[in-house]
TrEMBL record:
Record-given protein name: Uncharacterized protein
Organism, as annotated: Persea americana (Avocado)
Length: 664
C-alpha cells in the first residue's frame, strides 16, 4: 500500500532549508553523517527492538538489556566503530545500561584521577571490557555531602595495603549504576585514614566480583536496590548496594594523581587542587547538558507533530476542525520548549568546548579556570535538566489524553529522564554552588580584578546596576543588545541584593543559609543569561542555508522573551524594564510564535530522529496516528483473550450476587 505523509502540507510550508538545519543541529556535516548512519543502523536491527519494555518483568527487562549491551559491543567491535560512532550507537539504542557507568564514569575517573601507571594497567583492561566498572560514591546516608561519606580506607603499612570498610549501615554504597549485578570493579570513594588521621575522601579502584564465577569477593556484600519509578524506564539499570567488611587492596589502587600515599605511609599532596577528586562529576555534568537538549527535542518532536495532526473544535460549514497547534495557548506552551531544545543544544556545544579547554589547562597545571568550569557545569546541568523534565511533562499534557498512553513514548521518556534532576548533584545543591561562585565574584567588584568568562558582564556593574532598558518598540526586543542588557542587569542586581543581605547577617555562613532561596534564584538568572548569550553567539556566527538565520533568530527571541515573561516579577522589581516594555516583549513574543508556526514541523524534522528512536505513535514521521494507535491497542497482552483471566474467579461471582440482590 502506498505510504501517505499526513504531515506533507506542514512540511511544504517550511521557509528554510531543513537539510541545512539538520547539520546545524548536529554541530557539523561530519557529526550529522555519523549520527544519521548510527541511527539507521540501530533502527534497522531487530535486536534493538524496544517497543515491549513496559510489559516486561524486571528480570526479563534486565536480561534483555544485558543481551542488547553484549550485542552492541559485538557490533562495535565487528564494525570497528570509532569512539564517536560507538557513543552515537549507544545514544540511539536508547536504553540505560551498566555500560553507561563503565564508559561514562569508571573510565573517566581513572583517566582524570589516576597516574600514568594506573592508566596503563586499568584502562587497558577497561577499554576491552575485560573488566567492567562503576562509580561508587553515594552512600545510604550521604549523597550531596561528599565530605560526609563514611566508608574508610585505612592504610596498613605492614602489608602495604588499604583496608576498605563500611563501619555503619549508612556507609553502605547505595545507588551506583551497574553495581547491583554486573560490575566486576568499582572506583569507590572513601575516607583515607593513615595512622589514625583522616585525610578526607579519595578514590580507590576495588575489585568486587570474581572474574571466573562472578561471585562477590570475600568481605563484599552486594545487590540491587530495587525497582525504580516507572515501567521499563531506568529499571534496565542495576543500581546497587555494597558493603565492605575489612577488604584489603594494594596501596597502588588508590587513585594517586591528586595526592599520594608512600610506601612509608606518608601522605603527599601534589600541586593539583583537591577538587580534582570531583572531576568526573564535572565531566558528566557537561555531557548531561547536551543530553537535555536530546531528551527535550524528542518530547517536543512528538508534541509538535501530534499537535499538527490533532484537530478539535472550529469546524466551519462542515470543513475540518482546527489543528490544535493553531491555538495560541498551545503555541505559547509548545514553542518556548522548541526554542529551549535549540538553546540547550547550542549551550551544550559551548560547554563541551569550555570543558575541553579547562582539561587542556589542567594538564598543563593551570588551574585558574576550574572554579568557572565547576560553576558553569553545575549551574547549566541544574537549569537544563529541570527545564527538560518539566518540559517533557508539559509535552505529555500538550498531547491530551493520548499523551498518557505508553505508546506516546512520553511516560517512559519522563520516567527515564527525571532522575537527571537528582543524579550528578541535586539541582538545588548545584545552584547553591553557583551562588557561592557568584557571591565570591560580587565581593571582588571594585577591587580592580579583571573578571573574565561568563562573569565578564559584572565588570560593567556601575552601568548595569542603574540602567533602564532603552526598548521603545516591540521590534527592539529582537535586538541582541537589548535582550542581553536586560538579562545581565537582572542577574547582577539579584546577585548584588543577595550579597548585601548576606552582609547584614551575623556571619556569612548564616547569611548564605538564610538567603539560600534568593541565592538559588540569582543562580538561575545567571545561568539563563549564559544560555541566552550562547544562543546569540551561535546566530552571530557562520550559519549557512536558506532561511536558517531567520528561524534561529525567532527561536532565540522566543527563548529569551518567554523567560522574561515567566520571570517578569524579577525584571520589574529590579527595575531592569518597565511594565510598558514588558507589554512590548509580550507583543513581540506573539509575533514570533506566528513566525515559527508554519515552520514548526520542519524545525522538529531537523532533529533527524527515526521513528524507532522516537518510540512514539503520536510523533510518527508520517503523522498516521489514529490507525496506528488503534492497531497498537490490540497488541496489549490484556487483549490476548476476550474474557480476561480472573473473570471467573472475581467478576462473575459479583455479577451473580448482584443478580440475586436485584431479585430480592
Ligand atoms: C543497552 C545499551 C548498550 C550500549 C553499549 C555500548 C557500549 C559502548 C558505548 C560507549 C559509549 C559511551 C557512553 C557514555 C555515556 C555517558 C553517560 C553518563 C551516564 C551518567 C549516568 C548518571 C549516573 C549518576 C551518577 C552519579 O550521580 S555519581 C554521584 C554524583 N554526586 C554528586 O554529584 C554529589 C554532589 N555533591 C558535590 O558535588 C559536592 O559535595 C558539593 C559541591 C555539593 C559540596 O562539596 P564540598 O563540601 O567539598 O564543597 P564546598 O562547598 O565546601 O566547596 C569546596 C570548594 O570546592 C569547589 N568545588 C566543589 N565541587 C567542585 C568541582 N566539582 N570542581 C571544582 N571545584 C569544586 C567549591 O566551589 C568550593 O570552592 P571554594 O572553596 O573556592 O568556594
Ligand atoms: C537514577 C540514579 C542514578 C544514580 N547513580 C549513581 C551512581 O552511579 N553513582 C553514585 O555514586 N551515585 C549515584 N546516584 C546518587 C546521586 O548522585 C545522589 O542521589 C544525588 O547526588 C543526590 O544526593 P542525595 O540522594 O543525598 O540527596 P539529598 O542531598 O539527601 O537531597 C534531599 C533534599 O535535600 C536538599 N538538600 C540537600 N543538601 C542541601 C543543602 N546543602 N542546601 C539545601 N538543600 C539541600 C536537596 O535539594 C533535596 O531536596 C544516582 C541517583 C539516582 C537517582
Amino acid at each position: 500500500m502506498e505510504e501517505v505523509d499526513h504531515l506533507a502540507h506542514e512540511r511544504n510550508k517550511a521557509q528554510f532549508d531543513v537539510e541545512a538545519m539538520k547539520i546545524v543541529w548536529a554541530g557539523s556535516r561530519h557529526a550529522f553523517e555519523v549520527s544519521d548512519r548510527m541511527s539507521r543502523l540501530v533502527a534497522s536491527d531487530p535486536a534493538f527492538r524496544k517497543d515491549n519494555r513496559a510489559t516486561l518483568s524486571r528480570k526479563e527487562l534486565f536480561k534483555n538489556t544485558l543481551r542488547k549491551a553484549a550485542y552492541a559491543w559485538k557490533r562495535i567491535v565487528e564494525l570497528h566503530l570509532s569512539e564517536e560512532e560507538a557513543s552515537k550507537l549507544r545514544f540511539f539504542v536508547d536504553e540505560p545500561a551498566y555500560t553507561d557507568l563503565h564508559w561514562g564514569m569508571f573510565v573517566p575517573a581513572i583517566k582524570g584521577q589516576g597516574t600514568d601507571e594506573q592508566h596503563q594497567k586499568w584502562l587497558t583492561l577497561a577499554y576491552k571490557m575485560q573488566i567492567i566498572g562503576c562509580y561508587a560514591q553515594t552512600e545510604l546516608g550521604h549523597g550531596s555531602n561528599v565530605q560526609g561519606l563514611e566508608t574508610t580506607a585505612t592504610f596498613d603499612p605492614k602489608s602495604d595495603e588499604f583496608i576498605i570498610h563500611s563501619p555503619t549501615l549508612t556507609s553502605s554504597k547505595w545507588w551506583p549504576g551497574g553495581l547491583g549485578k554486573v560490575s566486576t570493579h568499582a572506583v569507590i570513594y572513601a575516607r583515607l585514614i593513615i595512622d589514625g588521621r583522616d585525610h578526607g575522601v579519595h578514590g580507590f579502584i576495588v575489585q568486587l566480583r570474581s572474574l571466573d564465577d562472578h561471585l562477590p569477593l570475600p568481605g563484599i556484600t552486594i545487590g540491587d536496590i530495587g525497582m525504580k519509578f516507572g515501567n521499563g524506564a531506568y529499571n534496565t539499570m542495576d543500581n546497587g548496594v555494597l558493603q565492605f567488611n575489612h577488604v584489603r587492596i594494594p596501596r597502588n589502587q588508590m587513585l594517586m594523581r591528586v595526592s599520594q600515599v608512600t610506601r612509608e605511609g606518608k601522605y603527599v599532596q601534589s600541586d593539583v587542587p583537591r577538587q580534582l577528586v570531583y572531576g568526573t562529576m564535572v565531566y558528566v555534568r557537561q555531557t548531561i547538558v547536551s543530553d537535555a537538549s536530546s531528551a527535550l527535542s524528542r518530547a517536543v518532536c512528538v508534541a509538535v507533530r501530534y499537535s499538527a495532526v490533532r484537530r478539535q473544535f472550529g469546524s466551519q460549514d462542515g470543513g475540518p476542525e482546527t489543528q490544535v497547534i493553531d491555538y495560541k495557548t498551545q503555541q505559547s506552551r509548545l514553542f518556548p520548549l522548541l526554542a529551549s531544545a535549540y538553546a540547550f543544544r547550542f549551550v551544550g556545544e559551548w560547554l563541551k568546548w569550555l570543558y575541553m579547554d579547562v582539561t587542556k589547562r589542567l594538564q598543563a597545571n593551570e588551574f585558574s579556570t576550574l572554579p568557572e568550569a565547576h560553576a558553569c557545569t553545575a549551574g547549566l546541568k541544574s537549569l537544563t535538566t529541570t527545564a527538560t523534565a518539566d518540559g517533557i511533562e508539559e509535552c505529555r499534557k500538550l498531547c491530551g489524553g493520548h499523551g498518557y498512553l505508553c505508546s506516546s513514548g512520553l511516560p517512559e521518556l519522563f520516567a527515564v529522564y527525571v532522575p537527571a534532576c537528582t543524579y550528578e548533584g541535586d539541582n538545588t545543591v548545584l545552584l547553591l554552588q553557583v551562588a557561592r561562585f557568584l557571591m565570591k565574584t560580587v565581593s571582588q567588584l571594585g577591587s580592580g580584578k579583571q573578571l573574565v568568562g561568563t562573569t565578564a558582564y559584572m565588570q560593567r556593574a556601575e552601568h548595569l546596576m542603574q540602567c533602564t532598558s532603552d526598548v521603545r518598540s516591540a521590534e527592539d526586543w529582537l535586538k541582541p543588545s537589548f535582550i542581553l542588557e536586560a538579562f545581565e542587569a537582572r542577574a547582577l542586581r539579584l546577585a548584588v541584593t543577595c550579597a548585601k543581605n548576606i552582609s547584614k547577617a551575623p556571619n556569612p555562613e548564616e547569611g548564605f543559609s538564610q538567603l539560600s532561596p534568593d541565592l538559588a534564584e540569582a543562580a538561575v538568572a545567571h545561568c539563563q543569561l549564559i544560555v541566552v548569550s550562547k544562543f546569540i553567539d551561535k546566530i552571530q556566527g557562520d550559519i549557512d542555508g536558506m532561511g536558517l538565520k531567520e528561524q534561529l533568530q525567532a527561536l532565540c527571541g522566543i527563548y529569551a522573551l518567554s523567560l522574561l515573561h515567566k520571570h517578569l516579577g524579577e525584571f520589574l522589581s529590579t527595575g531592569c524594564i518597565t511594565p510598558k516594555q514588558a507589554a512590548l516583549a509580550n507583543e513581540k513574543l506573539r509575533s514570533l510564535y506566528a513566525k515559527v508556526r508554519p515552520n514548526a514541523v520542519a524545525l522538529v524534522d531537523a532533529f533527524n530522529y527515526t521513528d524507532h528512536f522516537l518510540g512514539s505513535i503520536l510523533g510518527r514521521y508520517d503523522g498516521n496516528v489514529y490507525p496506528k494507535l488503534y492497531e497498537e491497542a490490540w497488541k496489549d497482552p490484556l487483549n490476548d483473550s476476550v474474557v480476561p483471566d480472573g473473570y471467573h474467579e472475581y467478576v462473575r461471582p459479583l455479577l451473580k450476587q448482584q443478580l440475586r440482590t436485584a431479585k430480592l
